[in-house]
Specification:
Layout lengths: L2 E2 L5 H8 L4 E2 L1 H5 L6 E6 L5 H12 L6 E6 L11 H7 E2 L1 H4 L4 E6 L15 H14 E7 L1 H11 L4 E15 L13 E11 L2 H5 L4 E7 L3 E7 L4 E4 L9 H11 L25 H17 L7 H14 L6
Parallel strand pairs: 1-2, 1-4, 3-4, 3-6, 4-5, 6-7, 7-12
Antiparallel strand pairs: 8-9, 8-10, 10-11, 11-12
Keywords: Acyltransferase, Amino-acid biosynthesis, Cytoplasm, Methionine biosynthesis, Transferase
Main location: cytoplasm
Enzyme class: transferase
C-alpha cells in the first residue's frame, strides 16, 4: 500500500531510503481513487521516531492511505521541535468535524499514573468518545491499549513488580480471527511496560475477545466483538534497535535496568540485536487495514455518522425512520 504523506515530512526520506513505497502528495492528487483516511494520535515523546515506525508498517499493502497526525493540545511536547508540530500535526479541535476510516492511538510513558491523573486524560477520553461516531475502526497500542480498554470496557490495569522488557514468544489462542490470518501458531513480539491487563478480565467481558497471549508477557492481542476496537499490548512497530536505545538511555540515567530479555544474542549487549518480530508485526497491521478497515468501511464516510446515530437510537429502543 503506498502511504500518502506530506513531501517534506522527515519520515518520507527515511522510508524511501528503505525501498518502501511512499506516495507524494503530487502523485496522489493524480489518482482517481478514494484513499483510506487514517488519523494517528501520537502520544509518544519521540514523535518523529514513532510516526516513522508506524508509517513503515502501514505502507506495505495494496491501497492508498492518507494520514493525519494528531497531538494532544492539553500536553506540551518537549522532545520534538515546535516547527515540526506546527507543520505536520493537528489537534482534536481542528479535526473533530471529520470522519476517518481508521485511527491509531500510540503508547505513552505514563503507565504508573492512574488514568485520570494523566494531564491529557480528559482530552483523550473526549477523542475516544468521538471515535464511536467518527472512526470506523481504532487500533490502540501499549499504554494506548490499556487506556482504550479501560475507557470503553472498564478493564483495569495492574502494576508489575518489575518492568516487562524484551522480546517474548506468543501463542495465537483464536486462530480463526482474521487479525492473525497468516500468523504462525507461535510468534515473537517486543514489550516495554510497567503495567498489564489480565486475560481473565478480558475473557469475562461479553464484548471482548482474546486473540494472542504469552506465558511470560501476558496478554498481547484483544479486540471488541464488533471489531471497532483493537488492543495491542506490546510494540510491534519497534525497530530492531529500539529496545537497545531504551536500555542505553536508562543505564545512562543511572537506573538499575536488567537486560531486555530474549533480545541481545547470547544476552550480550555488545552484540547487535536482531528483529525477530518484523514479519508478524507487518502482517498484524496489514490484516487490520484489510479485514477491519478497507473491507468494511463505508465508501461515503458521511454515512458513518448516520449509521452510528441509527445504532444509538436502536439501543434506546426508538424506531428510526
Amino acid at each position: 500500500m503506498p502511504i500518502r504523506i506530506p513531501d517534506s515530512l522527515p519520515a518520507t526520506d527515511i522510508l524511501e531510503g528503505e525501498n518502501i513505497f511512499v506516495m507524494t502528495e503530487y502523485r496522489a492528487m493524480h489518482q482517481d481513487i478514494r484513499p483510506l483516511k487514517l488519523v494517528l494520535l501520537n502520544l509518544m515523546p519521540t514523535k518523529i521516531v514513532t510516526e516513522t515506525q508506524i508509517m513503515r508498517k502501514l505502507s506495505n499493502t495494496p491501497l492508498q492511505i492518507e494520514i493525519d497526525l494528531m497531538q494532544t493540545a492539553s500536553h506540551e511536547a518537549k522532545n520534538v521541535s515546535e516547527q515540526h508540530l506546527e507543520t505536520f500535526y493537528t489537534t482534536f479541535d481542528e479535526i473533530k468535524g471529520e470522519r476517518f476510516d481508521g485511527m491509531i492511538i500510540t503508547g505513552a510513558p505514563v503507565e504508573l499514573l492512574d488514568f485520570e491523573d494523566v494531564d491529557y486524560w480528559d482530552e483523550l477520553a473526549a477523542i475516544m468518545d468521538w471515535s464511536a461516531t467518527n472512526v470506523h475502526s481504532t487500533l490502540h497500542i501499549c499504554w494506548g491499549a490499556q487506556a482504550g480498554i479501560y475507557y470503553h470496557y472498564g478493564i483495569p490495569k495492574y502494576e508489575l513488580p518489575t518492568k516487562l522488557f524484551g522480546v517474548f514468544e506468543h501463542e495465537v489462542v483464536k486462530p480463526s480471527s482474521p487479525l492473525v490470518r497468516g500468523f504462525n501458531d507461535f510468534f515473537m513480539a517486543p514489550h516495554s511496560r510497567y503495567t498489564e491487563v489480565h486475560a481473565e478480565d478480558i475473557e469475562a467481558h461479553p464484548d471482548l475477545e482474546l486473540i494472542a497471549v504469552s506465558d511470560e508477557a501476558g496478554v498481547y492481542l484483544a479486540k471488541s466483538t464488533d471489531s471497532r476496537h483493537f488492543f495491542v499490548f506490546g510494540h510491534p512497530e519497534y525497530d530492531a534497535d529500539t529496545l537497545m536505545a531504551e536500555y542505553d538511555r536508562d543505564i545512562a540515567k543511572g537506573l538499575d535496568m536488567p537486560l531486555p530479555r530474549h533480545y541481545f544474542p547470547n544476552d550480550d549487549p555488545a552484540q547487535k540485536p536482531r528483529a525477530t518480530w518484523r514479519a508478524h508485526a507487518q502482517l498484524l497491521y496489514t490484516n487490520w487495514l484489510n479485514y477491519y478497515v478497507y473491507q468494511t468501511t463505508p465508501y461515503d464516510l458521511d454515512s458513518m455518522g448516520e449509521e452510528a446515530e441509527a445504532d444509538a437510537l436502536r439501543a434506546e429502543g426508538i424506531a428510526h425512520e
